[in-house]
Amino acid sequence: MQTPELDVSEWFNTDTPLTLGGLRGRVVVIEAFQMLCPGCVLHGIPLVQSIQKTFPEEKVAVIGLHTVFEHHDAMTPVSLKAFLHEYRITFPVGVDRQGVGQLPNTMSRFGMRGTPSLVLLDQSGRIVVHHLGQVSELQLGSEIGSLLTRGAASVTSNPATVNQSEGASGSCNV
Amino acid sequence: MQTPELDVSEWFNTDTPLTLGGLRGRVVVIEAFQMLCPGCVLHGIPLVQSIQKTFPEEKVAVIGLHTVFEHHDAMTPVSLKAFLHEYRITFPVGVDRQGVGQLPNTMSRFGMRGTPSLVLLDQSGRIVVHHLGQVSELQLGSEIGSLLTRGAASVTSNPATVNQSEGASGSCNV
Amino acid sequence: MQTPELDVSEWFNTDTPLTLGGLRGRVVVIEAFQMLCPGCVLHGIPLVQSIQKTFPEEKVAVIGLHTVFEHHDAMTPVSLKAFLHEYRITFPVGVDRQGVGQLPNTMSRFGMRGTPSLVLLDQSGRIVVHHLGQVSELQLGSEIGSLLTRGAASVTSNPATVNQSEGASGSCNV
Amino acid sequence: MQTPELDVSEWFNTDTPLTLGGLRGRVVVIEAFQMLCPGCVLHGIPLVQSIQKTFPEEKVAVIGLHTVFEHHDAMTPVSLKAFLHEYRITFPVGVDRQGVGQLPNTMSRFGMRGTPSLVLLDQSGRIVVHHLGQVSELQLGSEIGSLLTRGAASVTSNPATVNQSEGASGSCNV
After folding, report:
1. Which candidate, A69, A48, A107, A104, places its Cα nearest to that of B82?
2. Most-buried pick from A115, A159, B112, C73 (CB within 10 A)?
3. Contacts of B141 in chain C (CB under 8 A)
4. Which of D33, D36, D173 to mutate to probe the C interface, most C CBs <10 Å?
5. pLDDT band for position A172 (50/70/90)?
6. Torsion-angle region of residue C151: left (phi > 0), alpha (psi -120 to 50) or beta?
7. What torsion, rounded to 10 degrees, do the Cα atoms A148, A149, A150, A152 define?
8. Cis link prior to A46 (omega < 30° from 0)?
9. Side-chain-facing half-sphere of D47: CA atoms under 13 Å
10. How far, in Å, are A154, B1, C138 from residue B131 at the CA level?
């Protein structure tokens, strides 16, 4: 599928709004989360914080996306800001724009089915893989290492694969 | 010290407001937390959920106390309600009433110095111990077992002991 | 049941052989393990090492018992000695004496059904509880705290309770 | 450095002895361990068991190497055999041959400095990286993913990198 663009109503941890188009040339990891989703707090966010530490920023960009699809009044940007501070989250986080339905816009465009969802884009912006729930670090590391080696030039069209981890504790599904 | 009474502006998970006076005859565990405090989410709340499972409710009462002393706008009762739902917290939780200062009233009265704080009361309502930060389950189990054996009748006046756990990750101090 | 005495062929970490009779007046925790039992290495031994740190030695005595009932040639005293060194085990450990059957003598006498097994004795030497497999620290702490409070004098005859933990990973059963 | 060959006195979990030469065309992970080394039991072996599950055997070969350099009498092949059974280790494990010094032969040839040590070879048999102690799964996954993508044909000469993880708990150093 053609990679959709982000639709973000407010950014944290960045002075300028980000677009996927502007990140071409880097591997991109999008971590879609809700601040009150236990699986996001216990697994999803620590995982991408490890990605931040393991890979150089100019090669692998980590973006958080706050995809609120339930308890909208409880997870406002005011609460999110405090959450990011308390959990020491330093990567850019965008608030997924609420649309007319239950799901926010970017979440709908990407066909995400719950949180935490991790989407991996290659250097040319193509979606390589979707993970829903808890992700194996070996598996994800391998996918990133593969992209870093292949480079943007030789990327061939990969159909997106959706892996729904079994036994994921605390994930929140649509 | 004379045990102060709770000052709660709103209760969740109980139809009738609770008082410490009304819990005489039972060991009482008060878990003071903030919903955006990582140490509370990772250690404090799972610990008292284990207490709930391990000891019969008619002998050991578990109460949560939402002692917001920072990021007040981010941790409102609306957000707390969703938090309790998502983390499957079923014990009664009171919102500590905001006073004129930074600290909410009950937190001030008990002299709590941060979150998570755990206060253990014997069956006659006396404070046996204060724990700040991560608590050893063996130690806490021993304190509860001791109270259950001693019973309310023979409880002698214990000066409250404050244990501040070292190396507590994610705790939030005043 | 009348508490049987230990039958030990060799001791480590103590200059003089221990007997349960000689430990009257203290709560006694017997940790029966095999050095190649994963559940013992992952759960049983760390648990009693925590007991050692939490409770004063003059009130709670921790004893290891190497109850080899399988792979006898693989878990000799020579291997056990290196194991104790590498895992920094400092409490006294006795080698349960091999008898004529598969099970060593003390294990048979106590009716243990596998490893790790934890037996808790009160200050008068009576068996309070048997645990097989992974043990809740809150539960065990409570049992110890209760004994410490009750004291030897007032101990009444308790029938031994056997708790076989469900879902214990890595335990080895007879 | 030119990759040395294994020098193994006895194999488990394989009918025919393995050589690194015979594994050309596959990525090879050598896990050097001692059965009584806590860091090996807690981190090293679970890690390579995850590698086994994550990557297809025909692309990534996992080999264990029992590199005993201390407590030789305690970690004999008889004990190792029981250890492999109890910890459900199913990949091939070779016993590193004892030479004239303290260190066994293969360990010396590879310049390993303790256990657990992990050596990663590319499909042409060249050493890509040495890890001593606890290894990041993201990092190792990335290294494997990179090799799988690059393929044997285009592998260029990499100087071996030795990463000694800091704060590795339970590792045993020469």
Report:
1. A69
2. A115
3. 137-145
4. D36
5. confident
6. left
7. 40
8. no
9. 26
10. 58, 16, 15
